[in-house]
Amino acid sequence: MSTLDPVAHDTVIIDSLSLSATIGKDWWGRIRPQPLSITLHLHLQPGYLDKSAATDDVGESIHYGHLAKSIMGLVDGPDAQVFDSPRNLARAVVKAAFALTGAVAAQRAVVAIKSDKLIPLAGEFTMEISTSYAEEVIEGTENVRVTIKDLALSTIIGVNPPERVAKQRVIITVIIHGKPGHREPIDYASLVARIANVGHLLLLGVCHGKFTPDIAGDECIIIPHA
């Protein structure tokens, strides 16, 4: 998930933390909590753990238990919040991580919000944001990548006469790289509906970038599965 070399950077990883959170409409179009998983890669400043290693003092390192609790506290407990998009939840996770560690410890955070049910036709939806401690203070500057995996469509595809008449089941993965500075929530369920309704012509259009202004993306890649 992380765009940094894990060997070159000490990294604290919270992997697939399961929780329920409100991130806008669910797969039935209702605003309510839905099951999600959150993964955080917190890249530390070079040499930050040297003192902890030399003294064998865990207090000089990052307490991953406190980090996990701060993430859970965003959606559960007295300070629980309601979010209008996966991106805003991911941004809140970044803020919570940086608030706990500070600039002395943290260099960069990469957060992935994953849902198996957000997009009914897809096997998995993942939004990943990546930002440095310095960049985080400016909202909307983080790098954003959305992956809609194993999207099942029924469309006409092929060149032989029977293939031009009968629809076939096609499985694709859509990867969207967000435009820097775009702050408005994107309705990815509507995007998937457009792909499903227009069929192969839209697939070709998205591959060539014709629809990216409407979905606030720098690049949209479609990967067919055999």
- Give the topology string: H per helix, E per strand: EEHHHEEHEEHHHE
What is the CA–CA distance across the termini?
A: 24 Å
Give the overall silhouette: elongated
**Helical proportion, percent range:** 25-40%
Largest sheet: 7 strands, antiparallel
> Which strands sit side by side, in order, in the main sheet?
1-2-3-4-5-6-7
Alpha carbon gyration radius? 20 Å
Write down how many β-strands occur, each being a DSSP E stretch of 2 or more residues: 7
Determine the number of helices (DSSP H or I, runs of at least 4 residues).
Answer: 7
Which structural category fits the helices and strands?
alpha+beta
Oligomer: single chain
Note the beta-strand portion. 25-35%
The low-pLDDT segments are 200-216
- Mean pLDDT, to the nearest integer, reads 80
Topology (SSEs and partners):
Blueprint: E1 11-21, E2 34-44, H1 50-55, H2 64-72, H3 86-105, E3 106-115, E4 124-132, H4 133-136, E5 143-155, E6 168-178, H5 188-198, H6 200-207, H7 212-215, E7 217-224
Antiparallel strand pairs: 1-2, 2-3, 3-4, 4-5, 5-6, 6-7
Helix pairs in contact: 2-3
Properties at a glance:
226 residues, alpha+beta, 27% helix
Describe the structure concisely.
With 226 residues, the chain is α+β, with helices and mostly antiparallel strands. It has helices spanning 50-55, 64-72, 86-105, 133-136, 188-198, 200-207, 212-215; strands at 11-21, 34-44, 106-115, 124-132, 143-155, 168-178, 217-224.
